[in-house]
Amino acid sequence: MTTGKVITKVPEGSKVEAASKAFKTTWGLKTPGRERGKLLNKLADLLEQNLDEFTALESLNTGKVYANTKHIDMGASVHVFRYYAGWADKIQGKTIEGQIIPWNFPMGMLSWKIAPVIATGNAIVLKPSEITPLTALRFADPVTEPGFPPGVINVAPSVGQAISQHPHIEKVAFTGSALTGRTVLRAAAATNLKDVTLELGGKSPTIIFDDANVEQAIKVRRGSRIFVQEGVYDQFLEHFTAAAKALGDSDGDPFAPSTLHGPQISLTQFDRVMAYIDSGKQEGANAQIGGVRHGDQGYFIKPTVFTNVTPEMKIVREEIFGPVGGVIKFKTEEGSFIVVVFWDLF
Is 342 helix (H, G, I), strand (E, B) or coil? Predict the structure, then answer.
């Protein structure tokens, strides 16, 4: 990401049989909820004890800034395991689950998928993204230390198709693209009619009204489609552009204390984001700032703010997963919702 070089390679593997054996022999109804809760809390303790190591792996995994990763990604993951520990004696499951997670939030997604499965007494086979498997594989190392029976928690890259098709898996949860989601759904229907949960791509709008605290709104920079009422539009755009510039001026090594903005996850994603930027320019949007690569090594892109965007533009309709946002002016509160709904029809 920072250099464009491969970090490491990981083997493929399947763990469905191990999960099935554990569920039938040592887990499920054979482990009371209060015991599952204790195990989840012990697992959270282990994560906290090794927080710096997991944070470093996650930054290496994704290119995210180390300080943010420690506070947000890893800190939240520990809390998720503790939260579900409290549910363990209040609910009971009876299945083997397959979980397929994306590359953009590896450890967070892992905690959201694994914790509720284990709390309910189910067994799991989790497939991390092939390009961000490091923290998931490291997580798999200590899971027997708190006392989880072997086979209860399984991590295996490159088994997405097997999870979708395997007859011993009765529930699949997938987070990713709509295209792959359709494939998962078809495979589940064609085999044993698995229950399927899909969290697919979207383009959620951020709406900022005239009475909003603009300085506070600037801090919420996750949206890529931002509607701003005309009374604060100029003020917001000025501050938002300045914030984007500050991020762009602090591109660099995710482990450096001065870095605020890291690289894209891979060459494929770098090319994809640059293609969206080029599309926006070609379709008439104005790059208020950014819109170019940063440096000549690694997958860095300057944070980009577009104005003069229209509903049919790809940068408005499609999820980008990169440092690209479009700022759209509106007049009235009623009009903002009409515009959002109208644009979503394209």
Answer: helix
307-319 b/e with 16+ CB inside 10 Å = b?
bbbeeebebbeee
More confident residue, 253 or 141: 253
Task: Say how far apart CA 158 and CA 67 lie, in whole Å.
Answer: 30
pLDDT at 89: 94
Give 223's DSSP letter: -
CA angle 202, 12, 36 (to 5 degrees): 75
pLDDT bracket for residue 234 (50, 70, 90)? very high
| Sheet order of strands, 324-330 included | 206-208, 225-229, 324-330, 304-307, 286-289
Among 277, 295, 273, CA closest to 286? 277
Query: What is the model's pTM?
Result: 0.86
**Maximum CA pair distance of the chain?**
65
- CA 133/CA 163 separation, integer angstroms: 17
